[in-house]
Amino acid sequence: MKKLPFLLVFTSFLGFAQSSDEEQLKAIYHQSLTNSKCYSWLDYLSNTIGHRLSGSVGAEKAVQYTKAQMEASGTFDKVYLQEVMVPKWVRGEKESAYILDGKKKVAVPICALGGSVATPKKGILAEVVEVKSLKELETLGEAKLTGKIIFFNRPMNPENVQAFLSYRDAGDQRRSGAKESLKYGALGVIVRSLTFTLDDFPHTGNTNYGDVSIDKRIPACAISTNGANLLSQMLKQNPTLKFYFKQSCYQEADVLSHNVIGEIKGTSTPENIIVVGGHLDSWDLADGSHDDGAGCVQSMEVANIFKNIGYKPKNTIRVVLFMNEENGGRGGDKYQELAQKNNENHIFAMESDSGGFVPRGFSIEGTDANLAKISSFKNLFEPYFIHSFTAGHGGSDIEPLTSPKLVKAGLRPDSQRYFDYHHAGNDKFDAINKRELELGAATMTALIYLIDTHGI
Amino acid sequence: MKKLPFLLVFTSFLGFAQSSDEEQLKAIYHQSLTNSKCYSWLDYLSNTIGHRLSGSVGAEKAVQYTKAQMEASGTFDKVYLQEVMVPKWVRGEKESAYILDGKKKVAVPICALGGSVATPKKGILAEVVEVKSLKELETLGEAKLTGKIIFFNRPMNPENVQAFLSYRDAGDQRRSGAKESLKYGALGVIVRSLTFTLDDFPHTGNTNYGDVSIDKRIPACAISTNGANLLSQMLKQNPTLKFYFKQSCYQEADVLSHNVIGEIKGTSTPENIIVVGGHLDSWDLADGSHDDGAGCVQSMEVANIFKNIGYKPKNTIRVVLFMNEENGGRGGDKYQELAQKNNENHIFAMESDSGGFVPRGFSIEGTDANLAKISSFKNLFEPYFIHSFTAGHGGSDIEPLTSPKLVKAGLRPDSQRYFDYHHAGNDKFDAINKRELELGAATMTALIYLIDTHGI
């Protein structure tokens, strides 16, 4: 019985910690749902600034706007920019395409893939070979592919509950379709849009030519899923029909851009840094509200919520809006380069880059012990319907970041609707639900609070 | 050590049961995401038939369509209708309303609340008293309320993560605002729409006059949230401004309608009945895709998935599409009346009436032991991101149903976006995500499979 008093003290201390955490989470979610700024920030980024492709006027305006907002917030000890040279790819004139079946022309919605070269000025007109995989190119070989347009038409597999798995699996067609097809003398590439839905939006995204010289590159476009189904159906009727497309995209010289950083100095261990961020650049077909305006304003909201609940972090918190995730990843690389140069010690990095949908949990990149530690907070999150803590990738922008004991996490919102909008002309502010966005911000804030308080 | 062999056998038996359940759930979700009909059924209900207010042509068409679909499916042993007399409320001409501030007229979007009486033909023009609660009427009293239009303007509380709590709390204004206001000589009632969003859609829904005779009833309308904010703001500037509204809704005599029922006879205990359903009627401002076309087609899909995976239920399964949930509940009452008359034994009843959004779990209405039993299936659902099993209400249509050991459950989809569409002009098919709808159907099927197999 002698040890009981100690046990009681210890238990009641734990009880206090838990209940104090409960209270803090309650305050965090309350602030986010009643007093947040993230939705109006995103409104401005999306509806006033618009798209933010690296090197564009929009990207530069977004840098200035978010920096000014962070400065005006009174939340940060320091707001600053990190210079980073970024690639500048320009779409040029709106693309056009049609299926030519005998004398019948049927227009279909396409867009150039990011990084693609242009077609010749008069466009490309050629017969089409439909394939379902990169591997099929080998089987068909040069004899069947030379002089043709290759049409990659493997849909995203609907059977994965986690939509990102389907995206990853079908994504090789977009990422490598052009690079692989040109080896067989193909003239161009059409890729089925990476979305589950049947609609008329072509979805862009980067294609990668590797080290193929510019003069050998062939143009690549995405076709909407309805367009892809139509083309496939018409090819069955007439395998020698032709496809025409024209695009005038081009690459300019790299230009100067910036990561935007707001820093709250830690009260007890300022040398330990916690990063929370999203990427400020977006594709150019819409506002990039989900990808990744949402992640940027949620990251800014983390600091805003801390201010509103009067929480002073022990460790230094950095809100980082990375530039150029979509077509280069230069912002993430630059952040790491400078962190290393300055001998910084990062203990935790969180990224939100999966849309502003209702949050479900986090994927954790660290040791098993890190995952166990973070999962031990699970019961605190359950009142907010956050329940999924799994091992997995943190995020593209924080991928280059290294530090001896660094743990990374990615916010995992519900994934079902993400690819309805991803890289397409409908990734707009009206596709954002204010509460879902705010719940994501609160969930990010809650985990950062817990890690800042209890360590990792 | 002697007991070990038994333990091993027992464990491996459990292991087998668990793994066979795992396989069945995998098959269920797979079928739902790759081979379901619910989305196309809902497309027809929403886009070809349209609204299905009780007593309307649409409601009758929906009865015939779903009956024909169930018959054609080859899934059921029996498909039949249950006759039920339903109230017929008709909106009449489109409502109109404006704020009259001196000579300035500002039009605002309103709609009559369901069950409301009409205004006089020329409309009502009167001063407005803004209140935040029913209780405030008492405080103000007859002196301040007679001859006035009462404007109920308490917003839904954004701080609840569970949106239905906010709906329940703010809902008394819509449900009882007219009945309470007429006691003080008010001429009419305006109710702020029950939604979190700021937009221009008025949200209808039933108002209840209790036993007040028709000649004493006063007209009640919903105003869009933007309209409510504008009116409130203008009232602050000019408390004696006037509000005008006109509506020509009316109640006709009850008409004959139907519950639609498809039945699969149980293979071993056919006398035990499991019900799964939604309500076929909807409000009249849109298609009622979320409320509750979704619940109907998901319930039909349960039977379709069982057919596709070759599962023959032990107990009798009834898919029930209830009529008249929105403004009477007559279908649910009739179902119970006949169940009782026929001495039927219902063991489980599930309702889907919270929108076709991504499913999160179930609310369970039963004993603690029932909740524990159903919660014991939780680990089987986790791969599908279903995690919330809580005590709570099953659903309005299954509320009247009684049987000695009956357990009820309501599908609980994510609630954040439900009130963006609920009872409003934007509750349309384009607000439905195919995968979210299908995941809901799979989740319902999975729980019914588990209860049918393991008992409750």
Indicate the topology.
Two copies of one chain form a homodimer.
Chain A: H1 4-35, H2 38-49, H3 57-72, E1 78-90, E2 96-101, E3 104-107, E4 110-112, E5 124-131, H4 135-145, E6 149-152, H5 163-170, H6 172-181, E7 188-192, E8 220-223, H7 225-237, E9 242-246, E10 250-264, E11 269-279, H8 289-309, E12 315-322, H9 330-341, E13 345-351, E14 359-365, H10 368-375, H11 378-381, E15 388-391, E16 407-413, H12 418-421, H13 434-454
Parallel strand pairs in A: 5-6, 6-7, 7-8, 11-12, 11-13, 13-16, 14-15
Antiparallel strand pairs in A: 1-10, 2-3, 2-9, 4-8, 5-9, 10-12, 14-16
Helix pairs in contact in A: 1-8, 1-13, 2-8, 8-13
Notes on the structure:
Two copies of one chain form a homodimer. Chain A is α/β, with parallel strands linked by helices and 456 residues long. The first copy, chain A, folds into two domains: 26-89 and 253-454, 3-Layer(aba) Sandwich (Aminopeptidase), CATH 3.40.630.10; 92-248, Glucose Oxidase, domain 1 (3-Layer(bba) Sandwich), CATH 3.50.30.30. Helices cover 38% and strands 24% of the residues of chain A. The first copy, chain A, has helices spanning 4-35, 38-49, 57-72, 135-145, 163-170, 172-181, 225-237, 289-309, 330-341, 368-375, 378-381, 418-421, 434-454; strands spanning 78-90, 96-101, 104-107, 110-112, 124-131, 149-152, 188-192, 220-223, 242-246, 250-264, 269-279, 315-322, 345-351, 359-365, 388-391, 407-413. In chain A, strands 1-10-12-11-13-16-14-15 form an eight-stranded mixed sheet, with helices on both faces. In chain A, strands 3-2-9-5-6-7-8-4 form an eight-stranded mixed sheet. In chain A, strand 5, helix 4 and strand 6 (149-152) form a beta-alpha-beta unit. The longest helix of chain A has 32 residues, at 4-35. In chain A, 53% of the residues are buried. Chain A binds chain B through residues 29-30, 33-34, 158-159, 161, 163, 196-197, 358, 360, 383-385, 387-388, 414, 416-417, 420, 433-436, 439, and chain B through 29-30, 33-34, 158-159, 161, 163, 196-197, 358, 360, 383-385, 387-388, 414, 416-417, 420, 433-436, 439.
